[in-house]
Design goal:
The structure is a homodimer of 399-residue chains. Helix content of chain A is 33%, strand content 23%. With 399 residues, chain A is α+β, with helices and mostly antiparallel strands. At the A-B interface, β6, α6, α8 and α13 of A face β6, α6, α8 and α13 of B.
Chain lengths: 399, 399
């Protein structure tokens, strides 16, 4: 990096290269790609403090495998866990299905080592859970997508591997019921909640043809609780919650739990399998608004593009909607109309154009939907402070 | 601030003025004190999203009172909750006894509004749980003790008020048993853990003369679980944990729970009540090391100052030790010896000289114990970027 800094050679740091917005991909042609893959050493795990310390190139699944005999697990899980690297996860503040239970990856990172654009190393690699000594520099680098420094080592707080879980699927007729179920779940299931996933009937139709005994519903909620407490107590908690609803199924055995999860996991896979093109959006907003946002996009498309189909699914309790649109062929006009409708809605309601995927190169020009002019100006000042020659992942995040 | 910036007038932002390190106190004589007390408006609470939005001058207890009818509570609690203000809490990333359950205050802050040194306002006031759009600027201001900007409004994620809790006190003969109890508690009590507090026999002697039926023990652990699940299930979980220990008492009724908590709460009060001087340290390190650090300080003092007494207590699971030393009169030599011994130990073991109290003016000269030269240089660069005329809380954090 020192050399590249002196010679003004742009550098694209790259982990598992599994990002969704082109953050780890060279796109100009003059960049050096800096792979972290061989920095894959696990330094230590301290079971008392429950902190793992490792290099950035460690693959997420390998870290989970290393932790399993100790009875611990990484605080995040995502589809690409077999190839994504923890350094990339941290650089993008990756989300996923454990967010609801364990919070953001950011909030589980205790320490980092970072190499700056000029080759200087900042060692913030401590394993302390509490440390109020000056500005918390690590948060500048977490989620900055390799534009402010290259993360080489991380310390991550790890939760316990849980012995028992119970999964339920609710079928609901009104969107408001899905929203109300969030408070009810917090009340009845509290700290045992492990996941609340959500999808609509359009998503259900492409995901499964299996009869669930729920009849036709407009909305579905998958709710999971997990704990080390005995299975009966956990089941009791879930039954208490389920008792509030007329359409629900419960799963305690592995096979049935898996089949309920498949309904959720199949949605993006089914979209991928359909001939045609899928326009994918990863946005966040108040949970009140998912259906309203979806209906608005649907409404704007319906008049001119009757073949376009809109699907809503995502992490309802986190306010993270995956809005997907399908059309028989790619059509730039559909993309433009959907995007302008959705982003205008987000601007109005202070939503985010990227809940978990980041900005990368694909969303850089839309950053102003979610961030004010002053905030973006401050980001530019920080970028200039840390990387005055703009060698680190140029044109990513800020273009 | 714009005026002060132009005229180079130093400004000390002040919330409830309850800090422990002089961060909110003018100390030069030429500063304007900027009180946030009258910015005490609660903007809104959204029970679906469980987010409260309010101004910085709101007193913590008032926010709790406002939330109670909704069934929610602030994610932090500390001794000064009757007068500390949420803006000061955020500016210092305040800790307290809910840290173990809900994580740092930092990780519960969803949005901020900040006025910069030059009077510009950065509006980061969103209520989104997930937002990966560019650098997460709010983390620069959280914990920066009013040196980078003045926080005027905050959005805080709030946990549910819990109906039931069970408290237990363990008496242990070996320090290693206290450390081992952390993993055991995580395993048996898991997500229901609400607090794990720790103190030694010296602390117990000054805190209470009551017979607990535990006999004389060298170390004590107070463990609490809290949940909305029924009290019997919660008690079962705690009994399962307690069964592993020979000396333990259980409390389910309010009176007995309170009396166990009093043992912990009385320690600093008892120290305050003793004639003489108490030297107070708020440090963090791996939980393995509390006793070793204490013994080392004790050992260094014993030879020359046989009247000095050392007390250890704190939040063991968070790695946060409150090491207190008492002597019959204030003695600068004792302070110097204790401090140099403790800080050298922290430097060696990558501990923190301030787990939750911050740096303020009192610890600014020791910042280099916990932060590297490069890290401090980076902090100085950030300070200069945000406050080039050094008008915001000068000589605090960085001196």
């Amino acid at each position: 990096l020192k050399y590249c800094h002196e010679q003004r050679v742009p550098v694209v740091p790259q982990g598992g290269n599994t990002g969704m917005v082109g953050g780890s991909v060279p796109h100009r042609g003059d960049e050096v790609v800096l792979s972290l893959s061989r920095m894959n050493k696990i330094h230590s795990f301290d079971p008392t403090n429950a902190v793992i310390q490792c290099q950035s190139g460690c693959i997420l699944d390998n870290l989970n495998e290393y932790l399993r005999p100790y009875g611990y697990v990484m605080p995040l899980d995502l589809g690409s866990s077999g190839s994504c690297q923890i350094g990339g996860n941290v650089a993008t503040n990756a989300g996923g299905i454990r967010f609801l239970r364990y919070g953001s990856l950011r909030s589980n990172i205790l320490g980092l080592k970072v190499v700056l654009a000029n080759g200087d190393t900042i060692d913030l690699l401590n394993t302390l859970r509490k440390d109020n000594t000056g500005y918390d520099l690590k948060h500048l680098f977490i989620g900055s997508e390799g534009t402010l420094g290259v993360i080489t080592d991380v310390c991550v707080a790890t939760p316990m591997l849980l012995a028992n879980s119970v999964t339920a699927l609710l079928g609901l007729d009104y969107y408001e019921d899905a929203v109300a179920a969030l408070s009810a779940a917090r009340n009845k299931l509290g700290e045992s909640i492990a996941a609340i996933e959500y999808w609509d009937s359009a998503s259900m139709r492409i995901s499964s043809t299996t009869q669930l005994g729920l009849g036709d519903c407009r909305f579905y909620l998958l709710v999971e609780v997990a704990s080390n407490m005995n299975l009966e107590s956990l089941e009791d908690r879930m039954m208490d919650f389920l008792g509030m609803y007329s359409k629900g199924v419960l799963a305690t055995d592995e096979g049935k739990k898996k089949s309920l999860w498949k309904l959720r996991e199949n949605i993006p896979l089914a979209l991928k399998g359909m001939n045609g093109h899928t326009y994918k959006y990863d946005v966040s907003m108040s949970p009140h608004l998912f259906n309203q946002a979806t209906l608005m996009v649907q409404h704007h498309l319906a008049a001119e593009y009757p073949h376009a189909q809109v699907f809503q699914y995502g992490h309802l309790a986190d306010g993270n909607l995956h809005l997907n649109i399908w059309s028989p062929t790619f059509d730039q006009e559909i993309k433009n109309l959907a995007e302008s409708t959705l982003y205008e809605f987000l601007r109005l309601h202070r939503g985010s154009i990227s809940a978990e995927h980041g900005i990368g190169v694909l969303k850089a020009k839309h950053l102003n939907v979610s961030k004010s002019e002053k905030a973006i100006a401050t980001m530019r000042n920080l970028k200039f402070l840390f990387d005055p020659y703009n060698i680190l992942n140029p044109n990513k995040v800020l273009n």
